[in-house]
């Protein structure tokens, strides 16, 4: 290895169309996303020597996807952290490139909401804790669990539905400028407040919509960025992850997520005030509000008033989920975590037409995954992305 520290850069990004119904298998969707991301990066398939796949399947299917793409690889990774997997795949790829194991890595996730066209054997997320600790009490899935979280937050801190509505409405405004978002009709606070109850107080417009699709991101060593690449490459300025926040505490704070444990590593060289946008994992608005608290933008319990007084639009004080997030784009299984990653790179490369943050230079992307019975989100991860000068 050379004496000069090697750095990784994000170059290519791509999403397949997100659709409610798709005739394509999960494997085909991922292959299409990989091909499109490589074309976006200006790199041939022959340049790829590493790949990370985000999936919750039982078999390690990274080699099989590599075979379908015709890749002969030196490094593979399977990231199974649910909604955090996309962000952790970037972290793994960054480390592999900077350790000089590989030069070009593709990170990919995807799925079809039709189980007949998805992966062969999909694990039930949190199956052990679900089966043993909450199913006997009538557990109804993530909607039911987040209903408990949101109700507790509203009870403890006075958080209101009107405050949560602002998150959903702002993101829908952004989605209207994103041609790949599934939900692009205007949304008003009254629409959110009157939407059907799913698991009180969770409403229909609190929930992500399952869909089919795939996304891929290409990383390469800084000295391998094609000379013809038309956009500024993106650097991972800081990265952090946490698994099983407060697991050793017999009485954990159920309104604190693992994101809180990441802040000292994320903001050791970057100040919150330096961030031009946030792409926060958003399977529910209450999850976004809690992350704003745990990241230190608001005191715990003050997230509601913070949202109320802050302009979260792409042209506002603190741009949030500028592509619409999962709440308006949909959630194509493990691709959900890539929505914020891809949008963050778009913003830094200046190609988020109709929703571009002015002179975006640095932004934060988070991922959260795996509801445990203690509700603290078993896997959390975040990266600070920065537009590279070269």
Description:
With 390 residues, the chain is of the alpha/beta class. The protein contains 12 helices and 11 strands. The chain has a 5-stranded mixed beta sheet, sandwiched between helices. Strands 8-11-10-9 form a 4-stranded mixed beta sheet. It has a two-stranded antiparallel sheet with strand order 5-6. Helix 6 packs across helix 9 and helix 6 crosses helix 10. The longest helix is centred in the N-terminal third of the chain and has 16 residues. The radius of gyration is 20 Å and the shape is globular.
Q: Profile the largest sheet.
A: 5 strands, mixed
The helix-strand sequence is EHEHEHEHHHHEEEEHEHHHHEE
Cα-atom Rg, whole angstroms?
20 Å
Q: Span from first to last CA?
A: 22 Å
- How much helix is in the residues? 25-40%
State the total count of DSSP E strands: 11
Strand order in space, largest sheet? 1-7-4-2-3
How much of the sequence lies in strands comes to 15-25%
Q: Any low-confidence stretches, pLDDT <50, length ≥5? A: none
Question: Quick check: average pLDDT?
Answer: 92
The computed structural class is: alpha/beta
Q: Helical element count?
A: 12
Shape: globular
Q: Summary?
A:
The protein is α/β, with parallel strands linked by helices and 390 residues long. It is built from 12 helices and 11 strands.
Name the features.
390 residues, five-stranded mixed beta sheet, four-stranded mixed beta sheet, 12 helices, 11 strands
Topology:
Blueprint: E1 8-15, H1 26-41, E2 50-54, H2 62-69, E3 75-79, H3 85-98, E4 104-111, H4 127-134, H5 142-157, H6 161-175, H7 189-193, E5 197-199, E6 202-203, E7 213-221, E8 234-243, H8 263-266, E9 277-279, H9 285-294, H10 303-309, H11 325-329, H12 336-348, E10 362-369, E11 379-387
Parallel strand pairs: 2-3, 2-4, 9-10
Antiparallel strand pairs: 1-7, 4-7, 5-6, 8-11, 10-11
């Amino acid at each position: 290895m050379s004496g000069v520290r090697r750095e990784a850069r994000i170059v290519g990004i791509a999403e397949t169309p997100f659709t409610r119904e798709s005739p394509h298998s999960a494997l085909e969707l991922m292959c299409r996303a990989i091909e499109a991301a490589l074309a976006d990066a200006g790199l041939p398939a022959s340049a790829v020597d590493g790949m990370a796949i985000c999936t919750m399947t039982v078999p390690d299917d990274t080699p099989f996807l590599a075979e379908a793409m015709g890749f002969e690889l030196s490094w593979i990774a399977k990231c199974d952290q649910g909604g955090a997997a996309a962000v952790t795949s970037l972290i793994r790829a960054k480390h592999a490139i900077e350790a000089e194991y590989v030069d070009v890595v593709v990170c990919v996730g995807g799925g079809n909401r039709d189980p007949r066209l998805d992966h062969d054997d999909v694990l039930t997320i949190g199956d052990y804790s679900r089966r043993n600790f909450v199913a006997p009490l009538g557990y109804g899935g993530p909607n039911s669990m987040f209903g408990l979280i949101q109700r507790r937050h509203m009870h403890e801190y006075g958080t209101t539905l009107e405050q949560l509505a602002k998150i959903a409405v702002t993101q829908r405004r952004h989605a209207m400028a994103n041609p790949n978002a599934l939900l692009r009709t205007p949304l008003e606070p009254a629409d959110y407040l009157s939407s059907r109850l799913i698991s009180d107080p969770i409403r229909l417009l609190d929930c992500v919509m399952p869909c089919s699709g795939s996304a891929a991101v290409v990383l390469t060593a800084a000295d391998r960025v094609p000379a013809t690449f038309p956009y500024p490459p993106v650097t991972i300025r800081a990265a952090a992850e946490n698994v099983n926040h407060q697991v050793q505490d017999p009485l954990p704070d159920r309104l604190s997520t693992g994101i809180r444990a990441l802040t000292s590593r994320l903001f050791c060289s970057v100040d919150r005030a330096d961030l031009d946008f946030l792409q926060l994992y958003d399977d529910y608005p209450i999850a976004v509000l809690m992350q704003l608290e745990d990241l230190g933008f608001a005191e715990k319990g003050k997230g509601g008033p913070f949202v109320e007084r802050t302009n979260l639009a792409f042209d506002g004080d603190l741009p949030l989920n500028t592509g619409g997030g999962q709440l308006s784009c949909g959630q194509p299984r493990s691709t959900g975590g890539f929505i914020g990653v891809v949008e963050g790179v778009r913003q830094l490369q200046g190609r988020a037409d109709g929703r571009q943050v002015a002179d975006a230079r640095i932004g934060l992307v988070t991922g959260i995954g795996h509801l445990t019975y203690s509700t603290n989100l078993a896997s959390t991860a975040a990266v600070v992305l920065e537009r590279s000068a070269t």
